[in-house]
Amino acid sequence: MSDPSPLDPRLEALLDKQAITELVYAYCNAADRHDNDKMRSLYHEDAIDEHGQFFQGPAMEFIDALPGIQENMLILHHNVTTLNIVLDGDRAEGEVYILAFHQVAVDGGAMDVLIGGRYFDKYEKRDGVWKYTHRAVVADWVKVDPETTVDLEHPMIEGSRIGTPGQADPSYSFFEIFNWGKGPHQYR
């Protein structure tokens, strides 16, 4: 039996870029849900993470520190807007534009922080799987409201499921196929 013919390089590049895109989306989900086990699965063991004042160093140590970093973050909501990905064999780089909303508990109340920024990413495919080797956060602008304007009791959302950090988020009980980090859907 002969080996199957190799994929057209254009198709292989498209598949690699899609895998990296799913990795980026999985990062946003893991951050927003405070799912640090999922977050850990997205980085290679020797990866680096630069997260401004919060952390600079080995990504696994960053993930170990996340519970303390996230403890006062009531809402995290990361939105990817533009992805620029360049491939070089089993290495790639990405400039990922994001809008990240944070509702942060402060002195018995909460404040809102909206950040427009980018991730500068380096990825490697090892054993057929793309993961981060280096991620650096870049802030382009920030808007801070010292008092939150979020109203999760407004009549417009009455009866809606309300997102929360952690396993209590309704996505964990609603979805059956995603499996959130388990089974064949690696990044979901």
Structural Rg: 18 Å
How far apart the termini lie comes to 35 Å
What is the CATH topology assignment? Nuclear Transport Factor 2, Chain: A
Total E-strand runs: 6
Order of helices and strands: HHEEHEEEEH
InterPro entries: NTF2-like_dom_sf, SnoaL-like
Protein name: Nuclear transport factor 2 family protein
Write up what this structure looks like:
This is Nuclear transport factor 2 family protein. InterPro entries: NTF2-like_dom_sf (IPR032710), SnoaL-like (IPR037401). 24% of the residues lie in helices and 43% in strands. It has one domain: Roll (Nuclear Transport Factor 2, Chain: A), CATH 3.10.450.50. It has helices spanning 9-32, 36-40, 59-70, 170-174, and strands at 43-51, 55-58, 73-88, 91-106, 109-126, 129-145. It has 4 helices and 6 strands; from the N terminus they run ααββαββββα. By secondary structure, the chain is α+β, with helices and mostly antiparallel strands. The two termini are 35 Å apart. The chain has a 6-stranded mixed β-sheet with strand order 2-1-6-5-4-3.
Comma- or semicolon-separated keywords:
6-stranded mixed beta sheet; alpha+beta; 188 residues; Nuclear Transport Factor 2, Chain: A; 6 strands
Structure described in brief:
It is built from 4 helices and 6 strands, in the order H-H-E-E-H-E-E-E-E-H. By secondary structure, the protein is of the alpha+beta class.
SSE layout:
Layout lengths: L8 H24 L3 H5 L2 E9 L3 E4 H12 L2 E16 L2 E16 L2 E18 L2 E17 L24 H5 L14
